Amino acid sequence: MTPLLVLGFNIQPAIAVGTDLMYAAITKASGVWSHQKRKTIDWVIVRNLALGSIPGSISCVLVIQYFEISDEFFGRIISVTLGFMLILTSFVIIFKDTFKSRFKSQTNYKPSDILIICIGGILGVLVTLSSVGAGAIGSALLLILYPNLKTRMVVGTDIAHAVPLTAIAGLGHYGLGHVDFSLLFSLLIGSIPAIYLGTLIGERLPEKVLKYIVASILLAVGLKFST
After folding, report:
1. CA 162/CA 132 separation, integer angstroms
2. Number of other residues whose CB lies within 10 A of the CB of residue 33
């Protein structure tokens, strides 16, 4: 969403990130309710990730406020971070199955709570600066760290963590004046038919083809933001 807004509609990077974060928090919220009914959320993992990601996100916003970073410089920081996260996400999408199969054999491995909190902190900062990472990268990390966690639990847990993280990060950007509510409302209206259309197209495309199409687009856009 963020690169589309920046490159396609010439929206300022900070506005694009802040609005996208609020959009993500709202659209993912219904997913938490759905997964909770199916009992596919590990709330202990969500808690540990949030103990790191939420303070990380808040700290990131406070640092921006404290140093009174100019819009031009902040836009550059966002562009570089966004490029990095898009490139990383493209590789995660391509190699996610490889990661899963490689770490599946580690049956006795269980990461410490401190490790998960630290990873959450890093994720919180990166998501706040780019709005990217709460989905593909978050789920990939869970697949690696919890190789025996069922896929539906990975998805549900990742979404449950993404909602408070994107909401807190979005509110932080709102405090910085980086949320366009007119744009947000338009995105929410447009997403209803778009989700339906995307589902129809996705059902007809082979998974491998769709995976490489998405990864290629993200890689190309990421490289553009990084240069």
Report:
1. 11
2. 8
Among the listed residues 205, 186, 207, the one whose alpha carbon sits nearest the alpha carbon of residue 197: 205
Distances (CA, A) of 58 to 102, 111, 176, 185: 35, 25, 12, 25
10-27 pLDDT, tens digit per residue, is 999 999 999 999 999 998
Q: What is the pTM of this model?
A: 0.85
Q: Label residue 172 by pLDDT band (50, 70, 90).
A: very high
Q: Is the pLDDT of residue 103 over 80?
A: no
CB contact at 8 A, 22 and 132: no
Q: Kindly give the residue spans of alpha helices, DSSP state H, lying in 38-150.
A: 43-66, 71-103, 113-130, 136-145
Total domains in the chain come to 1
> What does the DSSP 8-state code read for residue 10?
-
Q: What average pLDDT does the segment 81-100 reach?
A: 85
Cα 208 from Cα 96, distance rounded (Å): 12
Residue 89 lies in domain: 2-226
* CA angle, 19 then 23 then 26, to 5°: 145
Residues 136, 55: Cα–Cα separation, whole Å: 21
> What pLDDT is stored for residue 107 in this prediction?
59
Dist CA 163 CA 25 (whole Å): 5
For the ranges 73-77, 177-181, 206-210, 212-216, which has the lowest average pLDDT? 206-210
The rounded distance, in Å, linking the Cα atoms of 195 and 51 is 32
